[in-house]
Amino acid sequence: MKKLLTLILLITISLSLSGCKEKLDENNCSTDETYINGVCENTREYFNNTSCQFDEGTNLLACAKTWSQYLHTTVALTVYFDADAPIDSKELFSDVEEIISYYDKTSDKYDNFDGVTNIKTINDDPTTIHTVDEKLFELIDFTLSHQDEVDNLFNAALGPVLQIWHDYREDCNVNNICNVPTFDELNAKKPFTNPNDVTLDSENLTVTMKEGMSLDLGGVSKGFISGEILDYLDTLDLYGFLLNNGNSNISVGGLRPKRESGEFLIGVLDPRNSEWESDSYATVYLADNEQLVTSGDYQQYFIAGGEFYHHIIHNETLFPERYSRSVSIVTSDPALADLYSTAIFCMTIEDGKEFVNGIDGLEAMWFDLDNTIHFSTNFETEHLGEVLIEQ
Questions:
Q1: pLDDT at residue 349 is higher than 90
Q2: DSSP calls for 1-22
């Protein structure tokens, strides 16, 4: 998994906002209660791994929840709102979980679910005309329609090749049998990776492909799902929020309490220490409606014959190119951010800079193979907090 460490402390237990209570003076509140909007609210009442507590020094409540059972990752959300106009945090987190749970099933390429037509359903029988939910259709259509923006360096139809690499990686990491697929083995799957051979019917919400094809949306789905969550959060009267969708996909909205600029300060994981998930090599400022997405070589990988092979496969060479350890990008569109970061990681740093500098509102930072840091034209002035390692 792509990893990114936030500097924001996400709390893990929750307040259940109470209903009608007798009006009390704040001096009557017990040590387990906080005076909110004329009543004593219980701030130690727990449920569902969620917590709310006062953000120290403000009149804001900070509520947080984590989910580890979805999307093969951990999702964490912290929201801030005015304590004098409290929001039902239980309902909020329930609504967000419904979004995550939906995409957990429909975008899954590994498992089937009763009554659900998902990516695995399509891949199991590619030549059948599959009718899918509107949201899944939008995810597939979004991915295919934006691939040409990155010269198909991200390719949703690369599934047959990615499956070979997945099997070799699992054989090494699980069974300790570490080999590398041959070019002939990979190239035999190339005819089944043409995205133009995926047929979408927007009127009937159907998907079909040629025999031997399979979809893999892993490089864009988390960003797309983040976008769906953000659309929901934007309908609420929140002071601010921080969404961490899998430690590599960070989204923020509104303002960060107690920071004059209102920006959130995020730490970017040092790829050399990823196993510990404890060290950042730099910090990055994010403002309202900005996303920080990182792609790197340090999570899903294996070593064979003394060589390092990560999971991000180049669409043309069919092998994992290694031009940097990681690339972190900042932009305002979470779905495009995920797609862009995957594609930019497959570029040389110089080609990546040219690509990023050519798109308004897109900035990037690279951790090079020699441990040096590189930036797009405006990254340092607009987003960089500080570099935390010696160069």
A1: yes
A2: ------SS--------------
- pLDDT in the model for residue 85: 85
One-letter amino acid at 9 equals L
Q: CA-CA distance, 93 to 15, in Å (whole number)? A: 12
Rounded Cα distance between 340 and 123, Å, is: 24
Percent of the chain with pLDDT over 90: 75
The CA–CA distances, whole Å, from 269 to 4, 193, 327 equal 5, 33, 11
89: left (phi over 0), alpha (psi -120 to 50) or beta: alpha
Beta bridge partners, 200, equal 207
Q: Both tokens of residue 19?
A: 């209903």
- Distance in angstroms (rounded) separating the CA atoms of residues 378 and 362: 9
Classify strands 301-304 and 307-310 as parallel, antiparallel or unpaired: antiparallel
The dihedral over CA atoms of 362, 367, 372, 378, expressed in degrees to the nearest 10, equals 10
Tell me how far CA of residue 206 lies from CA of 131, 165, 320, in angstroms: 4, 29, 32
Name the token pair of 41.
């609210």
- The C-alpha R_g of the chain, in whole angstroms, comes to 22
Cβ-contact 55, 61 below 8 angstroms: yes
Query: For residue 249, which of 274, 272, 224 has the smallest C-alpha distance?
Result: 224
Helix, strand, coil percentages for the chain (3-state, nearest 5): 30, 25, 45
- For residues 355, 356, 360, 365, the Cα torsion angle rounded to the nearest 10 degrees is 180
Residue 23 has pLDDT above 50, yes or no: no
Task: Calculate the alpha carbon distances from 315 to 110, 134, 149 in Å.
Answer: 21, 28, 14
pLDDT of 36 over the 50 cut: no
Q: What distances in angstroms separate CA 249 from CA 2, 123, 243, 318, 341, one per listed residue?
A: 8, 26, 8, 25, 10
State how far the Cα of 27 lies from the Cα of 311, in Å rounded to an integer: 58
> Would you state the pLDDT for residue 258?
82
Where residue 30 falls among pLDDT bands split at 50, 70, 90?
low
SS3 annotation, 154-178: CCCCCHHHHHHHHHHHHHHHHHCCC
Alpha-carbon gap, residue 62 to 82, rounded angstroms: 9
Tokens of 67: 């989910």
Give CA separation, 139 vs 136, 145, 252, 339, in Å.
Answer: 5, 10, 21, 12
